[in-house]
Design a protein that fits this description.
The chain is mainly alpha-helical. It has a single domain, classed as CDP-alcohol phosphotransferase transmembrane (TM) domain (Four Helix Bundle (Hemerythrin (Met), subunit A)). The protein is built from seven helices and two strands. It has helices at about 20-30, 40-60, 65-90, 95-120, 125-150, 160-180, 180-215, and strands at about 10, 150-155. The protein has a two-stranded parallel sheet. Helix 2 (about 40-60) runs antiparallel to helix 3 (about 65-90), helix 2 (about 40-60) runs parallel beside helix 4 and helix 5 packs parallel to helix 7. The longest helix is centred in the last third of the chain and has 35 residues, at about 180-215. The two termini are about 15 Å apart.
Length: about 220
């Protein structure tokens, strides 16, 4: 049985550069050609993910391919940001399909970014990519579980959301392309440690919120 109130959930994005998303949506959505609808914009992530791996593979031979990797990140930001708004604007949105495919393909895109970097970083540091996948996958799991019990879908924490993550990806690509792969060895462990600390804080705050909700509704009949 489908939830009738699925479309009424609250989406929370308090990220630092969310205003860029809103400006781009306002400008782009009315101007997109009619053959580009919300669901095929979502499916563009499959193409971006494939190209991410291709350019990562080529970057092991010529580090300048990382500039192409950054371009793919920008293209993904565009299609991923406007797809839902296009559906709403044209009244052709597939709400449940869009929610499922959009976030599943976001995870695929993240995996492909890490696969791309597996061609670049030194062999003795590749195990850190596994930890990075587990950590950032855990952020997504936390969002989905919180959504399930609060009907609030939060996609940003500590003013950091999808746009900020993409900016960090582009900065990493730029630094590696300019200064070489040697600095990855120094920076990657710090990135992993900071991400773990952030995840611990996010989970602590989330469980604290849910605990308070349970305390407030203790004794009432709530069906999940």
């Amino acid at each position: 049985m489908l939830k009738k109130d699925f479309a009424t959930h609250t989406k929370v994005n308090e990220s630092l550069f969310y205003f860029l998303d809103k400006k781009m949506i306002k400008w782009a959505v009315p101007r997109l050609p009619k053959f580009l609808n919300g669901y095929n914009l979502t499916l563009f992530t499959i193409l971006w993910s494939f190209l991410m791996i291709v350019f990562g593979y080529l970057a092991q031979f010529d580090i300048n391919w990382l500039w192409a990797l950054s371009l793919i990140i920008v293209l993904h930001w565009f299609t991923d940001t406007v797809d839902g708004s296009v559906g709403v604007y044209r009244k052709t949105g597939l709400i449940r399909w869009g929610y499922y495919m959009d976030h599943f393909l976001d995870f695929v895109f993240l995996c492909c970014f890490l696969i791309a970097y597996s061609f670049i970083i030194p062999d003795d540091l590749k195990y850190l990519l596994f930890f990075a996948l587990a950590i950032y996958g855990s952020y997504m799991v936390n969002s989905f579980l919180q959504f399930a019990v609060t009907n609030e879908f939060r996609i940003s924490y500590f003013r950091i959301g999808p746009t900020e993550i993409r900016i960090v990806m582009i900065i990493i690509n730029t630094l590696v392309a300019i200064f070489g792969k040697v600095h990855v060895r120094t920076a990657l462990p710090y990135v992993v440690v900071l991400s773990i600390l952030g995840l611990c804080l996010v989970v602590y705050n989330t469980q604290k919120l849910i605990y308070k909700l349970d305390e407030k509704h203790k004794g009432s009949k709530i069906r999940l």
